[in-house]
Amino acid sequence: MPTGLTLRDQASLFALMMAARPVTNRELRDLAGLEISAEVRRQANQDVGLIATKKRGAVNTHKLTPAGKDWCESALTAGRPDGVKFPAGVLFELLDSVGQYLARSGTKFGEFFKPDIENWIRSAYAEITIRREPGSWIKLSALRPWLEEEDVPRDAVDAELDRMIEQPDVQLMAELNQRSLTDKDHKAAVNIGGEPRHLLRIGAP
Predict the structure, then answer these.
(1) For the residues 197-201, what does the mean pLDDT come to?
(2) How far is CA 200 from each of CA 3, 56, 122, 139, 168, rounded to the nearest angstrom?
(3) Residue pair 34/91 in contact by the 8 Å Cβ criterion
(4) How far apart are CA 11 and CA 197, in angstroms?
(5) Which of 116, 137, 161, 163 lies at a C-alpha separation of 20 to 30 Å from 79?
(6) Number of structural domains the chain divides into
(7) Higher confidence at residue 89 or residue 182?
(8) Among 184, 176, 179, 203, which Cα is nearest to 140's?
(9) Do both 98 and 133 map to the same domain?
(10) Residue 74 and residue 89 in contact, taking contact as beta carbons nearer than 8 Å
(11) Which domain holds residue 97?
């Protein structure tokens, strides 16, 4: 297990474990009240790379590497570190309980910690439209790069988009000016009811 990780570093890794997908620091502040700073990345990656950071749009996203997932999985059953007291001690006891449950039930780490795809779509949409009017239309070709993850097949994302249009604040529509569509736009479209939809809007127009 990598050495030199502070409690804050470990908490950052556990936050990424819970998210189970690439997240921005803005999301992490909302989720866990912390962010992945340059110092956290340096500490987490000095022995072996545990955190992968990638530029998406104007911001960075962070996620666990395979080694980071292995670290978290091991930490679930490592018990409370010596000298750790309240409140961090409660966290480690809780993590140990989760680890023991996974071991007893035969549940795989990746089956338990899975991304919430709807939340992922909404968060990516919010990042893309952060400087636009509420309820702006965006192309799915702009959204897709935010949702690319080896453990999450496109079919799962498309199924979630199909489900989300049942919600009153979500709309998907075809681009009326078909000549304006690029190959990238066509490939990014989601087929709903036999019709390709290229544009997404979330929130009141």
Answers:
(1) 97
(2) 45, 19, 11, 6, 13
(3) no
(4) 40
(5) 116
(6) 2
(7) 182
(8) 184
(9) no
(10) no
(11) 7-112
